[in-house]
Amino acid sequence: MRTTTADAAPHRAASAVALTVGKITGGAFSLVADPLALRGMSDKTGSVLTPTSTYRLQITSQQDLFRAAELVPYLKRLGADWVYLSPILRATSGSDHGYDVTDPTEIDPERGGADGLTALSKAAHDAAMGVVVDIVPNHQGVAVPRENPWWWSLLTDGKNSPHADSFDVDWAAGNGKIVIPVLGDGDEDLSALTVEDGTLRYYENVYPLAEGTYQDGDSPQGVHAKQNYELVNWRRGDSELNYRRFFTVTTLAGVRVEDQKVFDDSHVEVRRWFDEKLVDGLRIDHPDGVRDPEDYLAKLADVTGGAWTTVEKILEPGETLPRQWKTAGTTGYDSLGWIDRVLTNPEGHYELASLDTKLREGDPVRWEELIHGTKRRMADVGLSAEVHRVVRDLPGDFGHSDEQAYDGLAEILAHFPVYRTYLPFGVDYQREAVAAAKQARPELSAVLDDLAQVLGDAAASAEELTEAAQRFQQTSGMVMAKGVEDTAFYRFSKLTSLTEVGGDPSVFSLTPAEFHELAAERQRESPDTMNALTTHDTKRSASVRARITVLSESAKAWSEVLATLFPRAREAGIAITDGPAVNLVLQAIVGAWPLERERAVDYAMKAVREASVSTAWVDGDEEFEEQLTRLIDFVFTNPRARGIVEGFVERATAPGWSNALAATALQLTLPGVPDVYQGQELWEPSLVDPDNRRPVDFELRAELLTDLDAGLPGTAGGSPAVDDTGAARMLLTSRALRLRREHPELFTGYEPLGLTGTLSDHALGFDRGGAATVVTRFPVGLARAGGWTDETVNLADGEWEDILTRRTFTSTGGVKLAELLDTYPVALLRRKDR
């Protein structure tokens, strides 16, 4: 539940008293046990307890809940306030992510089971830490039907199953059956069916038999015809599927949590967590998929007692969450975008745009045109079944043909400016989409006008929405996610640090004033929302993006890299037929260097298949993929080519570290609750999943933290160099998290810090109410100009301690940046009189 800014300060202060766990003394951290370990949802005043930070752990069979419990002492020393777990409900066997829940009524035994959560919860609460868990209300995993009891029941008994209302099935569209697109190509593929042990089998796929549908001697094909499901060619799924799914994944079936019984049944285990005080908060995956997020969050608040809850909601620039939602805010992809862009030099835009246009043979890319095309393609192909279902839900007297209705709906979806509406909230976005569709396709004006009315243009409340309107809202987010995040982002390679989840690549950079305005608004409107920098969903980790951001200051040098590398590759007999794709892949390689050749190839294949320009996941171009793989091998093995790449990396590494430290400092101290993704207290350069889910060496991190805490400020041990060990980032992360946890009263406001001097544009700073952050921007240009000279940051008069170096600075009208930032490119300051 939201709290106002005025309410936030006292309840955080109260939490600080109750949850004080240690103090920093001379650079060392000493743990002080507190008997008031976190146990409930609110403090004595009734305020919702809010973490000062979270640390995300990916819970798998290799890193299960028992292992998470063992990590609590380290996370506590690091400064994390709450432990943040990936999904832990029973998932498909072998799942490395847990978002394919197969049984919402129990914790996954592979991930530690109920005993594992009990152990983790006890360890966290005994350390005065909270526990927040990621849950997945929108869908369930059905890849292995017999692992999902609800789905197995549905396939067995069809509309007579007790779970017939649990899944979002259009029975009429499947002639009373569930369409399962699993058969291979070929007219005779049903010949591979067999009946074994009372089940119907198609190779390794196993399906149930309805009672009385099989006798010895019956043909498998005849038995199949009697079932409540129909196995069809896998290619038919995108156009003929008759159950709602997660995006284009047919093995993730949509769940109808809008039904009270389905909600209750699917949250029985979640309810137990709160009844038994095992868990203290929730992160909600993909709320845009459920029919009515506001209603869902209200019901969920009843289950949790109003616990701190965030939603994985992607906000477009200028978009806000509905105020009536019972949530603290989003998972923070919006602030990730602000941070990256305020560190991006706008002066690099022209050169990078010119390079991109050259790689496209003189045809400049226009973002709005690009995403219209990718979204329209997704509506017509990948998500055609979903659009067809909206057509079927239109009133019988709609007055236009199904073909016209489909065309109109797809055009509205292609022009939709946000993920979805929550009508009547957001109706202006829908009107904007309809108007844009009419301008682009004037011949569809009549059908578009009528669609606007059916889709809720004049609805005064959610209760007035038609079935088609409600389903359209669930569909628009699918088209946006698949058309933009998973397609256009892989086609737009001008500067790939901008193509991150929740970002708008057409916004190349932000000024400090724009950044401060957004941050101040967050302090006013949603101070308890989450702030992310790297997540399990980001396409590149923060340190990779930070190095790629250097291209905005070294655009000509990057152009020269490609101008040199491309001819050499062609001389080696390698065909380069998709310049933008190669640019994207090379930026990833440079950003993550050094990396293994296999990781680079895996990333490249996923990227170009998602882009669907020169190859694709389905019916891809093997020759193109072979040539791209040869290019990567060329970069890794040819001395001259490798030298070109490593030469640029050498120039970009130090400024990349500076950018990464700046981004980390901003994220950890902005208004909101900072989340540290596992391993990211060091550089940990990772690419898109599954690369970002690789095992983390926590023993290394624990030893490094111990050394930092034992070291004396000003020595190599206590003030490590900014180098490839990442110790400087560990120092910054631990000191910032500890300061937030132990002194939340210093983080209750937001005031931009004034900067003066010739190179003042190379710095950014703000005061949170006694804790101030100052970071370096555009480090390449700063070095080129000779470094800091007379620049000053206007800190309030008094003594300030930089908690990174333990030095004290006395401000009488300001502090010189040449002194403040002589050790690190960032400073985190605390007023000594507070």
Automatic annotation (TrEMBL):
Organism, as annotated: Kocuria gwangalliensis
Name of the protein described by the UniProt record: Malto-oligosyltrehalose synthase
Every Glycosyl hydrolase family 13 catalytic domain range: 51-709
Gene expressing this chain: treY
InterPro entries: GH, GH13_cat_dom, Maltooligo_trehalose_synth_4, Trehalose_TreY
Pfam families recorded: Alpha-amylase
